[in-house]
Amino acid sequence: MSFPLVRNRRLRSSAALRNLVREHTVTLNDLLYPIFVTHGANIKEEISSMPGVYHFSLDRLEEEIREIVELGIPAIVLFGVPHEKDAHASSAYDPNGVVQQASRLIKTWAPELLIVADTCLCQFTDHGHCGVVHYDEAKGSAEVLNDASLELLVKTAVSQAEAGADIIAPSNMMDGFVYAIRQGLDEAGYEQVPIMSYSVKYASSFYGPFREAAHSTPQFGDRKTYQMDPANVREALREAQSDVAEGADMLMVKPALAYMDVIRALRENFNLPLVAYNVSGEYSLVKAAALQGWVDEKSIVLETMTGFKRAGADMIITYFAKDIARWLRN
Ligand code: PBG
């Protein structure tokens, strides 16, 4: 036998052959598109650090929803950017809150489009933390309370389901949130509404542009007492394990790009559907380089999405979803 013994290039010799042996593909069915909704009238305002991503007031939302449906994107993730904020995030569970109003409207325009409601408090609290804060004047310290926050999250999730959300996606990283929300939903008659848990959410600098977009930067301190340390992967398995035990229907890893190993670890250890969240900072980095003409946006994005699938994700939340839908069509 002549050298080389193995000719791996044989299967790469034509596009048709490469297509035949391809192991992973990105399809429209994999995509969830985040949308920011706000109060006011006639607002479609670009987020400066996220070119191509906007805040929409409710009267400008229909056009956007129709475009998403026309592109064939199956699901959106709704983020509220409310005007009123207070210590107890009342606007998060107000039946007339911005997310609740948006959900009801979207269901009249596009009943088939899946609405994933991000269930968190940070956009709705005046201090910008994801839960209730207890201040110790004497010590000059502040603590984000776990169990008191759960009550507000449950109220938020139930009011989102009432308004028409198809999937509840708690992102605030309090302990026990899946169990508490599951119970709350069941008691309110929403036992068929699945929970997509942000199981493994790291305290990441990649959320920077989102916090500008959602006006949710914490006013003091950081989120490190509830979001995870980027250095840990065994802890990610523990987080996922507790969510599975508490009744989560889907698991998520967030951010995605710097955490491909974590996606793989969850894939190998759990059998629930797995979501990769391609977060705001990951979007902005690629956009900025693409706008400079330094990288080819389409091929970089499609390669990245394929990477998430290869790592083990079943679906991807990405600000590129509309672009990808257009590229896949052509
Ligand atoms: C709310 C929330 C955040 C993101 C999604 N939900 C911000 C945060 O935790 O600070 C980030 C999404 C992104 O960066 O695209 N807790």
Give the helices and strands, then pairings:
Layout (H helix, E strand, L loop, with lengths): L14 H7 L9 E8 L5 E4 L2 E8 L3 H11 L3 E7 L16 H12 L4 E6 L12 E5 L4 E5 H17 L4 E4 L6 H11 L8 E6 L6 H7 L19 H13 L3 E5 L5 H10 L4 E5 L1 H12 L5 H15 L3 E4 L2 H9 L1
Parallel strand pairs: 1-3, 1-4, 1-12, 4-5, 5-8, 9-10, 10-11, 11-12
Antiparallel strand pairs: 2-3, 6-7
The structure holds ligand PBG.
Ligand PBG binds next to helix 6.
Keywords: Heme biosynthesis, Lyase, Porphyrin biosynthesis
Pfam family, one: ALAD
Function: Catalyzes an early step in the biosynthesis of tetrapyrroles. Binds two molecules of 5-aminolevulinate per subunit, each at a distinct site, and catalyzes their condensation to form porphobilinogen.
Describe this structure in words.
The structure is a single chain. This protein has helices spanning 15-21, 61-71, 98-109, 146-162, 177-187, 208-214, 234-246, 260-269, 280-291, 297-311, 321-329; strands at residues 31-38, 44-47, 50-57, 75-81, 114-119, 132-136, 141-145, 167-170, 196-201, 250-254, 274-278, 315-318. With 330 residues, the protein is α/β, with parallel strands linked by helices. The strands form 2 sheets. Strands 1, 2, 3, 4, 5, 8, 9, 10, 11 and 12 form a 10-stranded mixed β-sheet that branches. A hairpin with a 4-residue loop joins strand 6 (132-136) and strand 7. It is globular, with a radius of gyration of 21 Å. The termini are far apart. The mean pLDDT is 96. Residues 118, 120, 122, 130, 171-172, 207, 210-211, 216, 279-280 line the site of ligand PBG.
